[in-house]
Design goal:
The protein contains two helices and 28 strands. The chain is mainly beta. It starts with a helix and ends with a strand.
Length: about 450
């Protein structure tokens, strides 16, 4: 490229970045989310924004005289005014954890959660669901994703299309053989439902499966995420594959993320899986300190959805530059998949110490329908809630900016059609209680 072309490209890029910098103006003041003061927030708030700008916020906490942790939800209009009171979602008395909420184009919404079951090695739980009309009226009682309520999952993800059909992607794990050296099978599968809550397929859709022989537990499929095409109802699933190979006193790691599409009509695979990312690392067996690691040592999945770019995925990579160092570099990435299944547009959005502060202090992120990625984090030591947005080409939309003056925890962010919703919790002065607050931004 000649100097003139380079200059034109640079000026064009700068102009685009500056033009996009105006796409995050404040639209309105912070507003109260919960109608009843919360004595103890048990989970990060989860949120979803509908196409018309209305939104739903859910949280797990005791409320009023009920001291057990329950799942609550409240729906709001696009201007932040409440459309319902706090609605208790669960009817059972088990401990509810890991809630998710999704909405269709008409404001009807679904909530999912896990009933907590602790074992000696992990937290498992039966996945439950409950459906609601836009006015907050429940559509029947809570029900289990598996009809027998007998399957315990290690994780799950929930997605919904504009018509209200939805899907649950599950992480499952089972073992056989002696407890000292079991054979472990990890599975990611998907279950699709109609808007009424009826299963659409005779059995779960098999997405990925991996069995590790007895005594070897360094390979697994995990972190299944669901996304649905809002118009067609096509399902996309992403999952991570962790594998390792022992070599002397070291373990060679290979970490990858894959995506596969499944047809709306029959749930059958559409094309082959697409690889989003792969990275490698090594660690000294038995080491727990950073000095015993080198290379890529961890992958955390971020927001995943259908966008105008195709299917867009994001993730965080943990990287140790070399053995003997106590440095952990963190980077946030985004990549899209075209309708033909071709991965393109790999962008590194932020990296190193800046991301370290994001991960340390309640980092959250959301993808908008145009591929814009919005990041949110709590700065230290001020506890100010900060945010920054990046367009689909990876360019920052202005500098990081403060969302709220002070926050405790429970922060989350959601976006749709240019509407960005931030939520956080804050102590009530002079009490041990706290409130949830929201702030709307208009990205158009």
């Amino acid at each position: 490229m000649n100097k003139t072309a380079c200059l034109l490209f640079s000026l064009g890029t700068l102009a685009a970045a500056n033009a996009m910098a105006d796409k995050v103006p404040v639209a309105g003041q912070a507003f109260l989310i919960n109608a009843t003061a919360i004595t103890s927030l048990y989970s990060t708030t989860v949120t979803t924004v509908a196409k018309d700008g209305s939104f739903v916020v859910a949280w797990v906490a005791p409320e009023g005289s009920d001291t057990s942790p329950n799942l609550y939800v409240r729906r709001f209009a696009a201007n932040g005014s409440p459309l319902t009171q706090d609605i208790r979602v669960n009817t059972s008395s088990t401990t509810e954890v890991s809630p998710e909420v999704v909405t269709d184009a008409h404001g009807n919404f679904a909530l999912a959660w896990m009933t907590n079951v602790q074992t000696s090695t992990s937290d498992l739980g039966t996945i439950k669901l409950r459906l609601f009309q836009a006015n907050g009226t429940p559509v029947g009682d809570e029900f289990c994703v598996d009809a027998a309520c007998s399957v315990s999952a290690t994780g799950y993800s929930l997605a919904m299309d504009d018509a209200g059909d939805f899907a649950v992607v599950r992480d499952l794990s089972s073992s056989t053989g002696p407890s000292s050296a079991p054979s472990v099978t990890s599975t990611v599968d998907a279950i699709r439902f109609s808007a009424s809550g009826a299963p659409k397929d005779p059995s779960p859709i098999a997405v990925a499966n991996l069995t590790v022989p007895e005594g070897l537990t360094t390979a697994a499929v995990r972190s299944g995420l669901a996304a649905m095409n809002p118009t067609t109802g096509e399902l996309a699933v992403s999952w991570n594959v962790d594998s390792g190979l022992a070599l002397g006193g070291f373990q060679l790691l290979n970490l990858s993320t894959n995506v596969r599409r499944f047809g709306a009509a029959d749930g059958k695979p559409v094309g082959l899986p697409a690889n989003i990312q792969s990275c490698t690392g090594v660690y000294e067996i038995g080491s727990v300190a950073l000095g015993g690691f080198a290379g890529c040592v961890g992958i955390s999945s971020g927001p995943f959805r259908y966008t105008s770019q195709g299917i867009t995925a994001s993730w965080v990579e943990d990287f140790v530059p070399q053995f003997g160092t106590q440095t952990l570099d963190l980077s946030i990435h985004s990549k899209s998949i075209s309708p033909l299944g071709i991965a393109f547009g790999h962008f590194v959005l932020a990296s190193s110490s800046a991301v370290d502060s994001l991960r340390t202090f309640s980092y959250a992120a959301a993808l908008d329908a145009d591929g814009t990625l919005i990041m949110e984090w709590r700065a230290s030591p001020s506890n100010v809630l900060m945010s920054q947005a990046f367009n689909a080409a990876g360019w920052p939309l202005g500098d990081p900016f403060p969302v709220s003056g002070n926050s405790n925890s429970g922060n989350s962010v959601a976006a749709n059609q240019g509407v960005i919703l931030y939520t956080w919790s804050q102590n009530i002065l002079g009490t041990y209680n706290e409130n949830l607050y929201g702030q709307l931004y208009n990205a158009n």
